[in-house]
Specification:
The chain is mainly α.
């Protein structure tokens, strides 16, 4: 909020995870951002869920973030790539190329699939208590907007 007051921006995005924050804190963060006309790209429980959606047609519902690292590496195994999400959380170039690549089964870009999957899951909920909408993410909104600017 303070940064947005210091300079004019066409659009401000707040990007954050649910992690272990209390439900009230998470929901309030979204409400405060939106009441300040900021867009929000959250992940419940963590950003890695967005990465999973590039490679897996998860149907929503609880997937604990403690399992994200192993799930991502299971999905990356056919590509001979590993994700070190427990320590560095750095997405190596090979992993990024996979995320940006074409899915052999659908012949669609994986990022497009992730957007469709995340949006479908998001639309399953009523958004009255976003902290309970696990697993879900609105990173698809930010990525869709960025793609539209290309």
């Amino acid at each position: 909020i303070e940064l947005a007051k210091q300079k004019h921006y066409d659009k401000v995005w707040c990007v954050f995870d649910k992690d272990d924050f209390r439900d009230e804190e998470f929901n309030n963060a979204i409400q405060i951002a939106e009441s300040n006309n900021f867009s929000v790209a959250y992940s419940n429980q963590s950003f890695e869920y967005w990465l999973i959606l590039h490679l897996l047609d998860h149907q929503g519902g609880g997937m604990d973030r403690k399992n994200y690292h192993d799930k991502i590496n299971e999905l990356l195994k056919p590509f001979n790539v590993k994700y070190d999400g427990k320590k560095s959380k750095i997405i190596c170039e090979d992993f990024f190329e996979i995320l940006d690549g074409i899915d052999k089964n659908t012949n669609k870009k994986r990022v497009e699939l992730a957007i469709q999957r995340a949006e479908r899951i998001y639309n399953q909920y009523n958004h009255q208590n976003v902290a309970k909408e696990e697993s879900s993410t609105t990173v698809f909104k930010l990525v869709s907007e960025l793609i539209s600017l290309l």
